[in-house]
Design brief:
With 390 residues, the protein is of the alpha+beta class. It has three domains: 104 residues; 145 residues, Alpha-Beta Complex (Adenine-n6-DNA-methyltransferase TaqI, Chain A, domain 2), CATH 3.90.220.20; 126 residues, Adenine-n6-DNA-methyltransferase TaqI, Chain A, domain 2, CATH 3.90.220.20. It has 13 helices and 22 strands. The strands form seven sheets. A five-stranded mixed sheet has the order 2-11-7-9-4. Helix 5 packs across helix 8, helix 8 packs antiparallel against helix 12 and helix 8 runs antiparallel to helix 13.
C-alpha cells in the first residue's frame, strides 16, 4: 500500500465524496478581451486561445497583458483560481484548464471561465485532464463546428473532493512528473535549435557548388484534385496509396502513384511551405507540390535543403496566400556534388532522427515520459465514490 492509499484508507475508508462543481465553487464567466486588446505590459491577462497552445497545467506568469483601463472591464482571476476554456473546435481542447499560481490578480476574457474554489488548485487543474472529466464534458458539450461547454454546464460536473492533505500529496507527485517532462521538452527544443543551426551552416547558400534554379534541378509540379469521398482514413487493400495534401498525409486513396523517391511541399493552408519526404505508392492533391530529381540529387539532401530554405516566405500575398510552382522554380540555390550531398545527409539525418523520430531519441523518451505521467495521473485521480447515506 503506497502513501496515498494509506491516507485514503485512514481519511476516506468508505470512499471519496463527489460533488457538483457549482455547489463547491464559484464560476465567473469571462467577457470581451479580443486579441487586439493585448499588450506587452500592464495587467497580466490570459486569453482563452493561449490556454490551448501556450500554457500547461499551471502558470506563474502571463504571456500577455492589457491596459489598466481595459482590466477594469474584464473578469478577474486571483492567485489560486483556475481559468478554463468554454469553447474550441474540438472536444479535446474545450475544458482545458490552467491554474493561476502567480502573485498578482490577472484578467481573462470571453470563451473562458474563472473557477474560485477551496481545493488545492494544482489538484483540481490536474483533475481536469483526466478521462473521468472528459466523459462528463462530452455529455455536456453542445455544437458541431464549435464545441461549447458553458459555465452553466461546467457547474454540473461531478468532482471528487478528497481531504486537502491528500490533494496536496497527489499534486506534489504529479508536479514531479510534470517537471521531468518539462526538462525533456526543454532539452528537445535545445536540440532542435542545434539541428537548425547545423542545417543552416551545412546548407548555406555560400556552400561550394553550381548555382542553379530549382526548376533545373527538380521536376516540380502541382498534384491533382481528389474528392474528399475518395479518401479513406485507413490504409486498406482498396486504398493503398498515401495521399499528401498541403499539411501532410490526409489519408489513403486508390488508383494513383508516384512510385519513386519524392519530396512534397505544401502549397496552401496553415503549413504552407512545409516539406515532407516519401517514397513508394503515393498520391498528391493540388495543394501539394511534387518534387522529383532532374539532376544528380540525393532526395534526402533535397528534403533538408528545401526545409532550410523556409519556402513559406515565397507565398503570394493575396486573399488566399499560397505557393506558385513557377515562382519556386525560379529560386536559385547552390548544388554541391553528390558526394558532398551524401556527407551532409549523413550528419543531418542523425539530427533529424534525434529530434523528430518518435521511435528513437528524445521524442521517444518524451513520449514514454508522457505515457508514464498520464498513467499515474489517471490512477492517482481515480477514487472510489462514497455511497450516499441511506
Amino acid at each position: 500500500m503506497n502513501h496515498i492509499e494509506r491516507l485514503l484508507a485512514t481519511h476516506c475508508p468508505d470512499g471519496v465524496s463527489y460533488q457538483q462543481l457549482g455547489d463547491i465553487a464559484t464560476l465567473l464567466r469571462g467577457n470581451g478581451m479580443p486579441k487586439t486588446m493585448l499588450t506587452e505590459s500592464g495587467v497580466g491577462a490570459i486569453h482563452y486561445g493561449q490556454i490551448y497552445t501556450k500554457y500547461g497545467t499551471s502558470a506563474t506568469e502571463t504571456l500577455s497583458f492589457v491596459s489598466t483601463e481595459d482590466a477594469k472591464k474584464l473578469t478577474k482571476a486571483d492567485p489560486g483560481d483556475i481559468i478554463i476554456t468554454n469553447t474550441s473546435e474540438n472536444l479535446e481542447d474545450v475544458g482545458k484548464a490552467v491554474a493561476w499560481l502567480g502573485e498578482d490578480q490577472i484578467v481573462t476574457g470571453g470563451h473562458a471561465t474563472v473557477i474560485k474554489h477551496d481545493f488545492d488548485t494544482r489538484f483540481l487543474s490536474y483533475w481536469f485532464q483526466t478521462p473521468e472529466f472528459f466523459i462528463q464534458k462530452k455529455k455536456l458539450a453542445t455544437g458541431t463546428k464549435v464545441i461549447d461547454v458553458s459555465a452553466k454546464q461546467l457547474a454540473k460536473v461531478l468532482v471528487p473532493v478528497p481531504p486537502l492533505e491528500i490533494q496536496r500529496h497527489i499534486a506534489d507527485i504529479l508536479d514531479t512528473f510534470s517537471k521531468m517532462e518539462a526538462e525533456l521538452e526543454a532539452e528537445l527544443e535545445a536540440r532542435k535549435q542545434q539541428y537548425a543551426h547545423y542545417r543552416q551552416d551545412l546548407l548555406s547558400s555560400n556552400a561550394v557548388g553550381l548555382s542553379m534554379p530549382l526548376g533545373e534541378i527538380f521536376e516540380m509540379r502541382a498534384g491533382t484534385h481528389v474528392k474528399a469521398s475518395e479518401i479513406s482514413d485507413d490504409q486498406l487493400e482498396t486504398h493503398p496509396y498515401r495521399c499528401f495534401g498541403g499539411n501532410g498525409v490526409r489519408g489513403y486513396v486508390s488508383g494513383y502513384n508516384y512510385d519513386e523517391d519524392v519530396a512534397f511541399i505544401g502549397r496552401q493552408g496553415a503549413l504552407c511551405g512545409n516539406v515532407h519526404r516519401a517514397q513508394g505508392k503515393i498520391y498528391a492533391t493540388e495543394h501539394a507540390v511534387v518534387v522529383t530529381p532532374k539532376a544528380e540529387v540525393d532526395m534526402s539532401w533535397a528534403f533538408h535543403k528545401l526545409t532550410e530554405m523556409d519556402l513559406n516566405q515565397y507565398k503570394t500575398k493575396s486573399a488566399q496566400p499560397g505557393l506558385a510552382v513557377g515562382r519556386i522554380k525560379e529560386i536559385v540555390i547552390s548544388l554541391p556534388n553528390i558526394k558532398e550531398q551524401r556527407r551532409i545527409v549523413e550528419i543531418l539525418d542523425k539530427f533529424d532522427a534525434l529530434v523528430n523520430d518518435l521511435s528513437v531519441g528524445l521524442p521517444a523518451e518524451l513520449a514514454a515520459r508522457r505515457q508514464q505521467y498520464e498513467y499515474y495521473r489517471d490512477r492517482l485521480l481515480t477514487f472510489k465514490e462514497l455511497e450516499p447515506a441511506s
